[in-house]
């Protein structure tokens, strides 16, 4: 397989834009679920959590960005989650929270939907499929029903119905294959969720499983790693290069280390300089750290945290 970077003919596309749009922060690997496709290997035994001190540095550099995208783990499980959301919402910066929604059914988290709605926070919720069997197989028994009931509650609050309360759903394949076309699948999800449960949502994002973390281990264990990499490589689409999410964002790990994206975090592919958000004072265009896992972002219609890119 050709090294990924050798596929990029235009050197400008190996760099970030001068002006970045999104600051993505991974506030910890602690999670109430342990999904098969998880690229960060999150779970209930993980102890890494971003401190308030690191979050204060996030707030310091935030004026350089349009959006703060909060991810994890289950970001709600970080004890400083509400504080961070409050501070950012007060500053007027747009906030996205990536939630598995199941956590919002647990004790101590039940009032978070209202908390997020009051602050007009965009919610990006993982729903790997609209059928119980497929969803539970990937995320654990009972997760589908929990998500469906939480989606209904979010709809009641105006999420997915009111223009100011954006509710995105995130699909990822249940195995070693590429997602279908995003617009077709969005229409399918909309029809099924409306007909079967009366649920509305704003957008559906399709994300290609990245061959790292728990999903990478699964591919190796089942002897599918090489076949999956070949599938990604064969589907390389140069039209997706300009829209790679790393070109418009900076990603912060739980300990403040800086990366081009959330996929580079578990691989330890940190940016060269500065190494930590506490040392970040000027945002400049930088060379992106690529690896062969990047083929997952450029296969077919492309893939990013905001869905397909081409
Ligand atoms: S995919 Fe999301 S919800 Fe599932 S274990 Fe990973 S962080 Fe948790
Ligand atoms: S994996 Fe990260 S660095 Fe590689 S193309 Fe995707 S967003 Fe960019």
Task: Describe what you observe in this structure.
With 310 residues, this protein is an alpha/beta fold. It has one domain (4-298): Aldolase class I (TIM Barrel, Alpha-Beta Barrel), CATH 3.20.20. 29% of the residues lie in helices and 12% in strands. The chain has helices spanning 52-61, 81-91, 112-118, 132-139, 143-157, 182-197, 213-221, 225-234, 295-298, and strands at residues 22-26, 67-71, 94-99, 122-126, 167-171, 203-206, 249-252, 258-259. The longest helix has 16 residues, at 182-197. 46% of the residues are buried. It binds iron/sulfur cluster (2 copies). One iron/sulfur cluster (SF4) is lined by residues 31, 33-35, 38, 40, 42, 72-74, 100, 126. One iron/sulfur cluster is lined by residues 31, 33-35, 38, 40, 42, 72-74, 100, 126.
Structure summarized in a few sentences:
With 310 residues, the chain is of the alpha/beta class. The chain is built from 9 helices and 8 strands.
């Amino acid at each position: 397989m050709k090294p990924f970077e050798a596929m990029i003919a235009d050197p400008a596309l190996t760099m970030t834009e001068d002006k970045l749009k999104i600051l993505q922060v991974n506030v910890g690997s602690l999670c109430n679920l342990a999904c098969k496709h998880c690229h960060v290997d999150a779970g209930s035994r993980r102890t890494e959590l971003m401190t308030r001190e690191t979050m204060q540095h996030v707030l310091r550099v935030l004026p350089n960005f349009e959006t703060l995208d909060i991810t994890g783990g289950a970001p709600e499980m970080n004890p400083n989650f509400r504080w961070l959301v409050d501070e950012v919402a007060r500053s007027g910066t747009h906030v996205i929270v990536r939630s598995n929604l199941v956590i919002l059914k647990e004790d101590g988290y039940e009032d978070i939907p209202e908390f997020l709605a009051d602050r007009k926070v965009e919610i990006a919720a993982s729903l790997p499929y609209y059928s119980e069997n497929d969803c539970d197989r990937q995320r654990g028994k009972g997760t589908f029903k929990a998500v469906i009931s939480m989606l209904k509650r979010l709809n009641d609050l105006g999420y997915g119905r009111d223009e100011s309360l954006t509710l995105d759903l995130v699909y990822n394949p249940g195995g070693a294959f590429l997602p279908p076309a995003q617009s077709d699948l969005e229409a399918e999800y909309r029809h099924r969720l409306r007909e079967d449960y009366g649920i509305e949502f704003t957008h559906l994002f399709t994300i290609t499983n990245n061959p790292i973390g728990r999903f990478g281990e699964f591919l190796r264990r089942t002897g599918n790693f090489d076949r999956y990499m070949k599938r990604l490589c064969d589907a390389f689409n140069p039209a997706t290069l300009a829209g790679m999410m790393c070109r418009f964002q900076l990603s912060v790990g739980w300990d403040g280390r800086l990366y081009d994206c959330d996929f580079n975090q578990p691989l330890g592919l940190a940016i060269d300089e500065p190494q930590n958000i506490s040392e970040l004072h000027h945002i400049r265009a930088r060379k992106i750290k690529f690896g062969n896992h990047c083929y997952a972002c450029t296969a077919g219609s492309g893939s990013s945290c905001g869905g397909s890119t081409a």
